[in-house]
Amino acid sequence: MDAVFCFSCRHFQTDSGVEDSFRKGLSDWKKLSSKLEKHAHSQAHLNCMVKWDNYKVTASSGSIAAKLSRSHEDSVEKNRSYLCKIVDIVRLLSKLGLPFRGHREESESESRGDFLEHLATRLGLWKQ
Ligand SMILES: [Zn+2]
Questions:
Q1: Considering the domain boundaries, does residue 41 fall inside one?
Q2: Nearest CA among 123, 128, 125, 113 for reference residue 84
Q3: Is residue 128 part of a domain?
Q4: C-alpha of residue 3 to centroid of ligand 1, in Å
Q5: Distance 61 CA to ligand 1 centre (A)
Q6: Looking at residue 90, what is its pLDDT?
């Protein structure tokens, strides 16, 4: 095409109406260095460079949406684990016919009741 292109503007320019000679290809070679200099400092080009940098970061580390999704899946898995332990405790106490509550359930109490004591042991909520 006998033209000069700017990679970042060609691939990452989304604003229409801005100077796009380097996006479509600049074939007028006269005073090219001054045109390149002007383009390199233009706001449209700088915006495209930021978009390109963000693209490279996202491509190497995964998208924000994927990270959020992974974090959400981890949270769901952790909560399922807690819920299974709670259900196990409820089933055990029900099977043995033991009361859930203790006489005193404060953290200073020697015995906070079977449910809280089992929960603390299985989840490691507080020191025994
Ligand atoms: Zn550019």
A1: yes
A2: 123
A3: no
A4: 14
A5: 25
A6: 96
Is residue 8 within 8 Å of 51, Cβ to Cβ?
Answer: yes
- Tell me the CA–centroid distance for residue 64 and ligand 1, in Å: 26
Separation of CA 37 and ligand 1 centre (Å): 10
Residues 114/97, Cβ–Cβ less than 8 Å: no
Range of the domain at 23: 7-61
**What digits encode the pLDDT tens for the residues 15-41?**
765 677 888 888 888 888 999 999 899
| Cβ–Cβ < 8 Å for 117, 88 | no
Same domain, 70 and 117: yes
- 3-state SS, the chain, equals CCCECCHHHHHHCCCCCCCCHHHHCECCCCCHHHHHHHHHCCHHHHHHHHHHHHHHHHHHHCCHHHHHHHHHHHHHHHHHHHHHHHHHHHHHHHHHCCCCCCCCCCCCCCCCCHHHHHHHHHHCCCCC
Q: Ligand 1 centroid to 21 CA: how many Å?
A: 9
> In this structure, are 69 and 119 located in the same domain?
yes
